[in-house]
Amino acid sequence: MAVRVDVAPALLHWAVERAGWDAQTARRRAPKLDEWEAGTVRPTLKQLEKFAHDTHTPFGLLFLTEPPHEEVPIPDMRTIGNAAVPRPSADLLDTIYLCQARQEWYRAYAQDNGVVGPSFIGSAVTDTRPILVAGEIRDELGFDLAERPKFSNWEEALRRLIDRIENIGVLVMINGVVGANTHRRLNPEEFRGFALTDPRAPLIFVNGADTKAAQIFTLIHELAHLWLGKSALSDASMTASDGTAEELWCNQVAAEVLVPLAALRSDYRGAATVEELKRLARRYRVSTLVILKRLFDAQFFTWEDYRARYSEERDRVMAELARRGESGGGNYYHTQPIRLSRLFAQAVIASTYQGSTTYREAYRLLGTRQHATFENLAAELGVT
């Protein structure tokens, strides 16, 4: 005889909302949910276990009398207007926990191997002029205007910036799903990225489900958070007009790193046509959307005009990417180091070969179950 259990309707509703299910998904994934919530039918233990698994809910929490209050485990800088963003999704929380676990492992590895963390962590405050910090970041990364012609376009500039940020001691993870679960796609409307500060193991995560045009801005925005020495979950929106002082400061720094305002004022030919935006994008190796943001910062547009132009240009860029057939796919062994952080993956593999980390632990950290995948990844990363 099946064992049936009592579950508070509020807990069921909380789990569905936390998982981001709409009404249609809820009916498809949990056909008896309406009856469970109404109390006319109680779920069996197996049904409830499956429901917990499908909604990514810790099973024991479903036996509480009321939904728990889950907080983002790092400072939440996201805002909608001046209001804090509501309850975090399971996908967001699990992504942060996963990155914290990886950071914890790498911190111990760095300490054991005498790895010295970057000196710039916590070197600035929000009273520091953004133009000064932007100059420091460009110098650290070798991303001044003289270097830009080395990149064929802004997409390549993004890839090279990832490498250069890792070369100065920061773990960079760019992923559009939770871990390796392709069924749990991250929502860029919920968050664009976060920074986990640490003297030895600073980490940046960028939501890879966002457009690449937005990712390059988020990447530098999160790096600015590390300059402040503070962890943060971010909006990093190029159309934000308000928010916390820290978020606005990081936006200003990111924009100045990518497109120095003094240079743009000199380069701009006075009409923001698509051709002019593309020309400036080629000049600075950024997206046309970043160029639009900086033209607004230079006071060539009103706020209303900028918002309208940004929306129009974003639609054009997205349509162009769709025509080109661009997607987030590709060779696993090329994309996985970007998802994991090349620096992190190399450390895990090296530690495993040295005997300091078990293969079982390495598989867990790298999100693989097969030894052949581990060996192929090691070869791709040049670790022997």
Automatic annotation (TrEMBL):
Domain of life of the native organism: Bacteria
Protein name: IrrE N-terminal-like domain-containing protein
Residue stretches making up the IrrE N-terminal-like domain: 168-295
A Pfam short name: Peptidase_M78
Record-linked InterPro entries: IrrE_HExxH, Rad_response_metalloprotease
Organism (species): Microbacterium album
